[in-house]
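Input (structure):
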């Protein structure tokens, strides 16, 4: 179960059974630091996401490091972790799986 779903489960358990947050976290198996975590969104994150998707649709097989290198224009300011987190959006094909070659018969 994801941490967000566990947060909801802890909140509903604490309310419905009238128990403390600490006890509900222990029962469900959620750390209290994860329970109290607030998601922060940067003000320019939507613009960055649009730029990443634009680069990914133009350069389909480029990785997040290459897209970051492309985005060194002034004013773009893409963050490496943002690009890495948005893998798979907007036409980014990622890397292909490569199959291992089978060994010759009788050699392992």
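Output (sequence):
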């Amino acid at each position: 179960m994801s941490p967000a779903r566990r947060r909801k489960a802890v909140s509903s358990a604490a309310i419905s059974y009238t128990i403390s947050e600490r006890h509900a976290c222990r029962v469900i198996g959620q750390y209290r630091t994860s329970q109290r975590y607030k998601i922060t969104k940067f003000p320019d994150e939507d613009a960055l996401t649009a730029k990443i998707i634009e680069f990914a649709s133009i350069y389909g097989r480029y990785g997040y490091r290459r897209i970051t290198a492309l985005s060194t224009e002034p004013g773009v300011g893409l963050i490496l972790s943002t690009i890495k987190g948005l893998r798979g959006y907007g036409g980014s094909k990622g890397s292909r799986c490569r199959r291992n070659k089978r060994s010759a018969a009788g050699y392992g």
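Notes: Residues 99 and 105 are 17 Å apart (CA to CA). Residues 3-35 form one domain.
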